[in-house]
Amino acid sequence: MLSRRFAWALLAALSGLVTVQTAAMAEPRIGTAVRIVKDVTADARALLTGDGVNQNETVEVKADSLGELKLDDNTKLALGPGARLRLDKFVYDPAKSDGDIAVSLVKGAFRFVTGNAAKKDYKIRTPNAAISVRGTVFDVFIDDAGVEYLLLQQGSIEVCRGDGSDRSTCRTLQNVCNVIRVSPQDGVSNPLGWSERSDQQISFAIAFPFVANPPTIDPVVYNTAANIEANTCDQPQTPRQQRADYVPPSAPSYPAGPSGPGSYTPPSSYDPGDDTPPSSPPGGPPTLPVSWTGIYIGVHGGGTRTSSESDAYCDDFSTSGFGCGSSLFTPGDLLEGSLDFSGVNAGGGVQAGGRIQFGILVVGLDIDVTRMTGTDSENFTGGNSEFVYTTTVEQTMRWFGTTRATAGIAFGNILVFVTGGVAVADVEYGVGVQGYDTARKTVTQVGWTGGGGFEIGLGLFSFRGEYLHFDLGDETVVNGMGGNSTTGSQFENAGDTFRFGINFRLN
Question: What is the predicted pLDDT for the residue at 406?
């Protein structure tokens, strides 16, 4: 009874997990995580390189991490350490270059590069301002107190206080290297040089990390930190121009890609008049797997070794004639003690389940069903000096299923896990006595299972191998031997299964 209750509890938990995953899948995918360094999340799920990002998701970057996103219209967003943004809305028709793109920058450091949508379609919000763009690249920094700085790299932006309804508060930023300061108390400032701001305690490197180390999605050095801080940028700036006098600065404190901080060297052949960005830094973005979060289906195959212990015994059905009930035997006598027998049978089946990843920890629930082949059997020859029985015992496992909780650790694209839960099997037992028909009994047994395994992720597919031990408990089968007497066997059914499979992640 306890095993059955546990099975229902696991099934209910899986239903809850499926509900959560289905809700996440209901929001449309609007872009891709192009580069993820360390710990970045999108709502409850870990975000890894290659994952999709969805409308209405909040993307958050931990203090020692980095994220780069590309939306489906080619809008590019770089998120520095500690940044958080919300992807409020994304509607885009590539045939008309028309849409509705709304993004809320909540805190931290960002670089925003507009894409193919019309500039009027962008609605960019910060805690204190509404931003309109005109063919633009700009950086944003929002500190913990809600003070905001917007640094123009290319094009122009208009910044208005609050929701932008009061046009008298709007200011236009069109000189590159200038900044606009926005605070809850003072509102939107006029454009000014970085050195002209009143709060000199803010570090330029922390506020604008992508000046020294451009993101791989837009690896262009528009202006050097020295020129911006001294307010000596050339006006107007040629779109996407690499300055000839650029010298890579010292490395920042956050991770900067597989080649190390400051390792990118601009190509010498870059044409300042070309609006095409140069190639990515050597090595490109790190190749990390897709997230382990999601619902999956799959197939598997392998072998199962069943190991049974069977006791053949006499019982008292009759006291007449020869047999277990005669004076030759005492009721309950074993015909031949206990007999261990086993067999290895092949099987294959299907599985489904769901997982949620929290950093390197992955938890989930698995359900699988396996169709088994083969029958295990063994003969007893026993009795005493006056009477001998030959008894044949058989065991056929027709199908085998489990409902299991899993927990594992992700090492890049390799997941190592342990698992345990409920095992259910349909088993046919048989007891045959020499000279009599074989008595058969088919039962559905419920027991427990536990084990572990590994899984290797390759995009939306993954390949897994696992080992499970199971114990289905005891079952007794009786042969009435024509009504004169009876003999029977008590089976103790346990075993081990080894199998390999392929999964496909649905989201």
Answer: 95
Strand partners, 364: 355, 406
CATH number of 34-230: 3.40.1010.20, 3.40.605.10, 2.60.120.1440, 2.30.30.40?
2.60.120.1440
Give the alpha-carbon dihedral of 249, 250, 256, 260, to 10 degrees: 110
Which residues have a Cβ under 8 Å from the Cβ of 137 and sit 6 or more positions away?
Answer: 111, 112, 113, 114, 153, 154, 155, 218, 220, 222
State mean pLDDT over 93-121.
84
The type of residue at 151 is: L
**Mind listing the pLDDT tens digit for each residue in 168-213?**
999 998 888 889 999 888 899 999 888 887 777 788 888 899 998 8
159 within 8 A of 133, measured Cβ to Cβ:
no
Query: Does residue 447 register a pLDDT over 90?
Result: yes
Length of the chain in terms of residues written: 507
How many Å apart are CA 406 and CA 365, to the nearest integer?
Answer: 6
pLDDT in tens, 297-330: 999 999 888 776 665 555 544 433 334 444 334 4
Contacts of 165 (CB under 8 A, 6+ apart): none
Distance CA 85, CA 90 (A): 14
- 352 in the Ramachandran plot: left (φ > 0), alpha (ψ -120 to 50) or beta? beta
Residue partners of 394: CB distance under 8 A and separation at least 6: 375, 376, 377, 428, 429, 430, 431, 432, 438
Q: What CATH class has 294-505?
A: mainly beta
3-class DSSP state of 13: helix
Element (H, E) at 20: helix 2-26
- Tell me the torsion sign for CA atoms 266, 268, 272, 278: negative
Sketch the domain layout of the chain as residue ranges.
Answer: 34-230, 294-505
Q: Exposure of 154 by Cβ count < 10 A (0-12 exposed, 13-18 middle, 19+ buried)?
A: buried
- DSSP letter assigned to residue 117: S
CA–CA gap between residue 437 and residue 423 (Å, rounded)? 32
User: 3-state SS of 182-250?
Assistant: EECCCEECCCECHHHCCCCCCCHHHHCHHHHCCCCCCCCCCCCHHHHHHCCCCCCCCCCCCCCCCCCCC
Check whether the bond before 236 is cis (ω within 30° of 0). Answer: yes
CA-to-CA distance for 262 and 248, rounded, in angstroms? Answer: 6
Asked if 160 and 166 count as a contact pair (C-beta separation under 8 A), the reply is: yes
* ∠ Cα 378 381 384 (to 5°): 155
Kindly report whether the global pTM for this prediction surpasses the value 0.85: no
